[in-house]
Design a protein that fits this description.
two-stranded antiparallel ribbon; about 15% strand; 3 domains; elongated; Chitinase A, domain 3; 9 helices; 7 strands; 5-stranded antiparallel sheet; alpha+beta
């Protein structure tokens, strides 16, 4: 899956081809800001590199930040204008790396252009929101749990509970999870917030009941007490608009990619 992103950058050795394409929205009017071994560094390239290194617009860079990053960029130009650079640039591995970086930058630019030209409409956002709300679980749960390392330990805990032991006290004593000191209290949560074996077990319990068998997850073995339940309160459209908008736009882009793949497959 191709997802629009802003690549992370670190160190002066980073090549210009990996700079985030989002900076291409800057003005295209360029002027020479430095010349290194006869090669000009223009203002657009410099600002793109500065923005990528300080993770904010170049015009917000302090004088010290700009000076430091420009020294890095100068080093890049110094290294790439050495006599050995041309020969090394013809090495098949280096040429392949440059090709891939160039393709990635162009692909990112195409993706950015697609997102800008295909924003989610209010109607699309509403349809997706309603679809998500229909698939939302009907209940939220309030629960406690005791997490132990082995199934045998969980069985022993359940036996103590069946004999009348206090769940919170057992959690404080036996649970290896971070909620142990708080009596295993997990507060209110929707099923999707928990790993599947845990949420399934909670859903099958009645309020006030604990699991009669240990529940295994990737974290260990759980003994669960479902304290209470209530109707799920779905978020308002406005509170999740940005998330829904991104989901709709990403779906559009994935559909676009699927069409391109289909055309490619049909003509291959």
């Amino acid at each position: 899956m191709f997802i629009l992103h802003r690549p992370g950058l670190a160190g002066a050795a980073v090549t210009l081809a990996t700079i985030a394409v989002s900076t291409l929205t800057m003005t295209a009017v360029a002027e020479t800001v430095a010349t290194v071994n006869g090669v000009d560094i223009d203002s657009v390239a410099a600002d793109m590199y500065i923005s990528s290194r300080i993770q904010k617009p170049a015009d917000e860079a302090t004088a010290a930040e700009r000076e430091t990053v420009m020294e890095e960029l100068t080093d890049i130009y110094l290294l790439t204008t050495q006599a050995s650079a041309e020969e090394l640039g013809n090495d098949p591995k280096v040429k392949a790396q440059i090709e891939l970086q160039s393709r990635a930058a162009i692909a990112q630019a195409v993706a950015t252009d697609f997102f800008e030209k295909n924003p989610a409409t209010d109607e699309e956002i509403l349809v997706e929101y309603e679809l998500q709300m229909k698939s939302a679980p009907p209940l939220q749960f309030k629960a406690r749990h005791i997490l132990v390392e082995t199934q045998a330990a969980a069985v022993d805990v359940i036996a103590e509970l069946d004999s009348g032991a206090n769940f919170a006290e057992l959690a404080a004593t036996h649970s290896t999870g971070p909620t142990g000191p708080n009596g295993g209290d997990l507060g209110w949560f929707a099923p999707a917030q928990m790993v599947r074996p845990f949420s399934d077990a909670v859903a099958q319990l009645s309020d006030g009941a604990h699991t009669s068998e240990p529940v295994q997850s990737e974290f260990g073995w759980h003994v669960i007490l479902r304290e209470d339940s209530r109707e799920n309160q779905p978020p308002t459209l406005e509170s999740v608009r940005d998330v829904i908008k991104q989901r709709v736009e990403q779906s559009k882009f994935q559909n676009y990619l699927a069409r391109l793949r289909a055309i490619y497959t049909a003509t291959d």
